[in-house]
Queue: 3 jobs
Job 1
Amino acid sequence: MHLLVSRPALVLLGVLTTPVLAPVSHLFADDNAEKSAPKKTVEVGGVLEAVRVKEIKANTEQLSPLKIKRILDHGSMVSRGQALVWFETEPVEKKIKEAKIALRLSRMSLEAAEFAHKQAVANEKIERGKADRTIRQARQRHKNFMSVDRDRQVATAEFEVKKARAALENATEELEQLEQMYKEDDLTEESEEIVLKRAQQAVEIAQFRLEGVEISAERSITQSLPNTVANQEDALVVAEMAHKKALRDFAAAGERRKIEFNKTREGFREDEKKFEELQQERERVMLTSPIDGIVLHGRLTRGRLGDKPSQLAKGSTVAGNQVVMTVVDPHRLQVRVDLSEAHLATVHKGDTCTICFPSMPELMLKGEVSSVALVPYASTKYDCVVKLRGIPKSAGLKPLMTCKLSFEIEHTGTEAKEDAAD
């Protein structure tokens, strides 16, 4: 059975199928466009840097500044152990001599401090003994008074009253007996009067003395004794405080002596250390190269010399911790690059690049990014290190040479349109 289709129907069928085929061909066209997308080149500047770098400095703390007597020329080729710079020795010897004298004086001060410390310790032991005896005596006096003397003082006052009363009674009894006796004997009236008069006077005296003793006893018990008790209590309190103060003073004086003695001893040790360091630093009046390489005056900063030429020469002075020279090994080189923040989007660790040199237009090398800093080292500058590949032995590359690095990146569709618009 055959299907018959009219011509108008075929035309309609073609119209309906054409839009379906058009997008398919368009997709293939886009794939080919992406495969053949143009590439963009990003160029950055760099400098050749030696992988092996040794900074040369005296590393002296006591001997500073140092005066240069002789120094090798900038850019000289040197070998390991070769002398690079010589310093004047006269100032060094003068400082060592002064340090030796200071050390002797410091040792004498330490010996005197040790002797004084021993004497002070012995004297403190004696004074502590005195203070302990003083407080023991004060406590014993207080104990004796409160346990014995106070009651004894009361008993003494009462006994004095008793004795005065007994004396009065005796005198009164004698007077009465005399008066009775004189009535019975034949004594003359004149002699009786004399004896009776004396007996009466004795009674009066005994009576008066009894009154005085009673007053004294009453005052002693009610007035003097309480005051004495209070004075004894105060005396003990004062003695206790004096003892505590003495102990505190002993401790403070001992601590002060210890601090002063330690200070003197530390001063001696510092002088001793200074003298020993000076003797060791005296060996550094000549600096040598630790490696084979090229010697450069001053310090390199990220593989570059400073903008101003070095002023190091005979007669100039340098600090003990100053980098005088830098020795670089020219056989192992890498490229140090400063990236801007905009470059971080295109330059990554592991990327490859092409490196060319202004001083050698015919030389072109390949490089690979070995590191890109996560944070800037200054403002918006990021550190980047690029390894060199396949350096010919006859290339003659040297540290400090500048170069240009080219990175190729593919355009995105948006970037291509923007470039086309530009």
Job 2
Amino acid sequence: MKEIFIIKNSGEKDLFSFEKLKRSLKRSGATNENINKVVEGIKPQLYDGISTKKIYKKAFLLLKKSNRTCASKYSLKRALFKLGPTGYPFERLVGALLKHKGYKTKVGVILQGECVTHEIDVLAEKGGNSYAVECKFHLKSNFSNNVKIPLYINSRFIDIQKQWNGNPKNTTILKQGWLVTNTRFSLDAIKYSECIGLRLLSWDYPKNNGIEKNISDFGLYPITVLTTITKREKDQIIANDIILIKELMNAPEILNKIRISSDRISRILSELEHLI
């Protein structure tokens, strides 16, 4: 095929790569047969100036026809944005990830600093150390967290750390601040954070250990990846403080509560089982 230039979410132009598309499909668990079907289906629909968003939608619908479970996993990045509009569901997801890594976690904690009080999104504890985790949830994928954000987060952490470690009643050391986002960090934000010891976690950072890999490794998919329920139903489930598919699996009665038919509940539970 001739070279085709696509428009990224940032507005930048880039050369379309079938290899990148294949890799993203492969990460969802799609078989070579599934991937080839998607690729062959997309080829005649490509044109210069097509957006990455349109390519994703076309790939998702084609994959959904052949493998609904892989389509759910393929939609993970977009599914994180659908956790909004508030940041609380994302904070719950981050807390669950840390819990599966062996941390004790609390979401939404008020801590006294040396100067003022601060609300910490997630307080994590492990091995005699505590960690203050700040979550930056964004509704748009083209948002990049610049250096101003870690500068601000680190100043809050220092204020809390002075008070915490100076309090003899605390049984752990407040060791480190974390900054977690569902988008990306600028190069300056990464450089500054590495310099001052602020730990970062984003969709694909650190390399091979970002949010995408952690969610996939632990099977902590948000309910927004499900293809068998509508957006309205997802919003209703989240309103009942159920964020993860594992939580929905343990509380299927919520599906009756929001008046989903028994036939559809069977299909939803089947999708949950395949994802877990």
Job 3
Amino acid sequence: MKHLVFSVGLVVLAFGVAILAQAQTKSVERELIKLENEWADAWVKSDIAFFDRIEADDYTWMAPEGFVMTKADDLALLKSGRSVITSWVLADMKVRVYGDAAVVTGRCTTKETYKGEDVSGQFQWTDTWVKRAGRWQCVAGHTSRIAQKQDIS
């Protein structure tokens, strides 16, 4: 009888741990989606303080054109006013959590001018997040322009 009670207890404990882990993952997913949306808003508002907080000091971003930007480059761009973003809409976000690391993917549609030239478009992106000192920071990102359908007939 003791073995049966012990076995049942272990099963209940295992299910409890699994349910707790799933709840924590859902919480992280919600938090990162919220941060991604706030980041999109920060682009529109040129919120330098938000960028300084959300991007890790070793942050790198691969641009659709193939060049690499750092956190310092992002902050300098925001301060310069060369890029004016009037809309940044996110869609189809998916979060995969790996303990204190996570990968977020999605699409965005932007309305932007860079040095007066329209660079608006639709993009797919990937952001890699790490939890450091109790808060999530983005350490890397990659963005690709979504190709427009072409009539090849």
